[in-house]
Amino acid sequence: MQSLIKPLILALGAACAAAQAANPIFTDVFTADPAALVHKGKVYLYAGHDEAKDNTKFFEMHDWLVWSSADMVNWQAHGPLLKAKDFKWAQRDAWASQVIEKNGKFYWYVTARHDETKPGYAIGVAVGDSPLGPFKDARGTALITNDMTTDTKQDWDDIDPSVITDDDGQSYLFWGNTKPRYAKLNANMIELDGPIHAITGLPEFTEAMWVHKHQGNYYLSFAMGFPEKIGYAMSKSITGPWEYQGILNEVAGNSATNHQAIIEFNNKHYFIYHTGAGRPDGGQFRRSVSIDELFYSPDGTIKRIVMTSEGVSANRAGAEKQ
Ligand code: FUB
Fold this sequence. Notes:
- The chain is mainly beta.
- Strands 5, 6, 7, 8 and 9 form a five-stranded antiparallel beta sheet that branches. Strands 1-2-3-4 form a four-stranded antiparallel beta sheet, with no helix packed on it.
- Helix content is 7%, strand content 40%.
- The longest helix is centred in the first third of the chain and has 18 residues, at 2-19.
- It is globular.
- Bound molecules: beta-L-arabinofuranose.
- Residues 32-33, 48, 59, 95-96, 111, 159-160, 207-208, 257, 259 line the site of beta-L-arabinofuranose (FUB).
């Protein structure tokens, strides 16, 4: 009898552990700038990969890492599926990115530092036939380069792409540091279709836009100030005007940057972000992705995120569908 009890307790412990995540969600690598895609009963998480030796100098980021999950707790690692060097025009710096599906293709919009032919940060796009690729540069050139936005002085103003397709099928690219911008995307998803527009109404805008829609409202969340909080604005139209609603998430521990993805998965809403907290060797350039639940108020505004160390519990509906 005694010999049965120990394995039973161990099995019970493992089941409980699997039903509840912990933040940060990965402790074997440092991860940042999360983006997420819900596709066929799974969540795909695309994250930047912090490889700085310590927190004294700057970001060291060469590739993007991917995981998938059917329940938001158990994550399968798929490794690095794209790197800055996969874009022949890029020098380095695999910064923030987002993947979106359109007409059965998966488009991965990325930030990287352009080579000396077009100095500054740029946005490129890779394409693949599945959420896990394989992905390849869809153009052979960057989609957005620093010389296309000369009204801002610094060369890192063209970073942090966020992409959304509106209900009429038109897709939009949002991006920017210091100055938020958007443009229509051509139906082929790899060219702009029209002029670049400035966005107004986002106080203390720094970077990290994420645009999503919920029950007839458009939401534009963004990193504000420095150190960064996440604020958000709402609109009845994807093209604005945007009305600022307030702070969505406070400064995340031990990190001056923050960067969020917001998704709905099996009737729950999630706020996916990075923090420098939760790991003894974490910090400014060694960040970690965390996930907490997001709740809407009846009037459509979003309640302030409560960052937890427990993380989210298993979204069983996702697991049962598999
Ligand atoms: O991770 C590098 C840069 O820092 C991202 O592009 C920004 O959003 C900020 O997180």
